[in-house]
């Protein structure tokens, strides 16, 4: 048999062993990244307008981040949580500084879904109640707890029965009002629904949900996994609306791309904890904490939160100008560098054309939204490359 070329080898090997759960984009094998750019094994360059699914917020391989990880890797990689650790303590203090004042305590985890599952446990513990309310079109991850909150039937149906969760329509206060009774421990929502297509929560709705929670003794848990760390132009999206959630879940940008998750919560929630209430072997490991510590320094030093707001504005303006006369476009919306272009048809073929014809990588949001989550370090020139490519592939 003829020997397979190297590219087909790697893609085929990965697919044969690891395949089955993820739809791939052709047989592209990504091998290197720098800033907003990725390179495949054949040397082709791509503009990454997804920040590797919203995590590489500082750009790929930010030198300060890479150096911090490398240095820590030579010092200490694993440290059990029954010991204190110098980097973990420093990271905790740095994270506490960027969190809203009332979220005074943190549990360190490894991913978004793990943070969500932990948040549900904390809410049940703190309230002594079991009920959970989430929103339609919400996405919170795919572990059993997180999947119970996730609405999309395609993801959840085969795994039912899941946790008992009441799903109510997003941005509908009446239905929320009817769903939250004295048995509800927690209401979980995103301020901007990402996976469903960058759907903005109305300010009045979000404040109304918080009021309902307060009135009925339920906790408000906000999923900041995609929206946190400057994605929307504030440290956390709920800050746009002056909300005071009892719990927030974080991941994606927290370690600048290094795998990490966290749950932040109030003193009242903290009061319910006891040793063994929750745990995670890898959570808060020194390598992740060193990455997190460096990432937080970079967000601040490079003023990336403010930059996200400014560059997001520019991206929206340029998209609006470039796509002004397109009937195929129903709406362009965004908050900071979280942007959705809603089309009148399915988005799949345009994502393919963007990558294959223009070397630009974007994400879907729902079935008909082209979603952009670029690194917060994106330049004006890179925005222009992206806008021109999008304008070239979208139809009239
Ligand atoms: C809003 C939101 N919540 C939860 C998750 C799940 O995070 P993870 O994939 O790290 O488990 C995601 C991932 O895309 C997300 O966007």
From TrEMBL:
Keywords: Amino-acid biosynthesis, Aminotransferase, Pyridoxal phosphate, Transferase. One of its GO terms (biological process) is L-arginine biosynthetic process. CDD domains: OAT_like. It comes from the Bacteria. SUPFAM superfamilies: PLP-dependent transferases. One of its GO terms (molecular function) is transaminase activity. Its cofactor is pyridoxal 5'-phosphate. Pathway: Amino-acid biosynthesis. Belongs to the class-III pyridoxal-phosphate-dependent aminotransferase family. This is Acetylornithine/succinylornithine family transaminase. It comes from Litorilinea aerophila.
